[in-house]
């Protein structure tokens, strides 16, 4: 008898989900032994506790398969960062915009940071115009999740992929047989005096269903 099943009576559920009714614990254990199954407590907080007749080994195996499948189809939440200067060179702008497009197509969010230096801090409208230009050029792929906001010497805007774009990225990931294994990526071509920043990853883990303890 499992030490966790302390009640004298249990509400017994058959292997096909049929309700057997409230029976003494000893009787439930005997029924489990008769059909060569385990007595598993599935609702210990119920009064009386609910127990089910099942093959516990098979249950754990199927639960592990479901958890693995869930992890395989899981889309990781990733935030990439792209840094620009308000007076960025047109070629550098196109290069960094290309990185933003690639990130959005992969289903990632992008934090776009405009860095002001010296007298540039007195011209925040330059950074605002640059962010609005970028927003208008990626509308097919994403939208502004967090509007441009001044943060000290920086101006920050967060872009997120459209739902359809993210769904396509998830489907592409699943078709490759597992979640993407990502290394931290640099934030595009660095300008003079600028150090490339790695992408910031914030992945939410997922846990599969937990099997109950066998009653036998």
Tell me what the structure shows.
This protein is α+β, with helices and mostly antiparallel strands. Among the domains are: 2-56, Translation initiation factor 3 (IF-3), N-terminal domain (Ubiquitin-like (UB roll), Roll), CATH 3.10.20; 79-167, Translation Initiation Factor IF3, CATH 3.30.110. 33% of the residues lie in helices and 26% in strands. It contains five helices and nine strands, in the order ββαββαβαβαββαβ. Strands 7-8-6-5-9 form a five-stranded mixed β-sheet. A four-stranded mixed β-sheet has the order 2-1-4-3. The chain is elongated. Mean pLDDT is 80; it is low at 179-216. It holds the Pfam family IF3_C. This is Translation initiation factor IF-3. GO terms for molecular function: ribosome binding; translation initiation factor activity.
Please, how many helices?
5
Chain-averaged pLDDT: 80
CATH topology descriptor of one domain: Translation Initiation Factor IF3
CATH class of one domain: Alpha Beta
Count of extended strands: 9
Shape: elongated
Uncertain stretches: 179-216
Compute the CA-based radius of gyration. 28 Å
What's the CATH architecture name of one domain?
2-Layer Sandwich
Summing up helix and strand content along with how strands pair, one would put the structural category as: alpha+beta
| Helicity, as a percent range | 25-40%
CATH homologous superfamily descriptor of one domain: Translation initiation factor 3 (IF-3), C-terminal domain
Helix/strand order, N-terminal first: EEHEEHEHEHEEHE
Largest sheet: 5 strands, mixed
Query: What is the rounded distance between the termini?
Result: 5 Å
> Going across the major beta sheet, what is the strand order?
7-8-6-5-9
Main location: cytoplasm
Protein name: Translation initiation factor IF-3
Subcellular location: Cytoplasm
Subunit structure: Monomer.
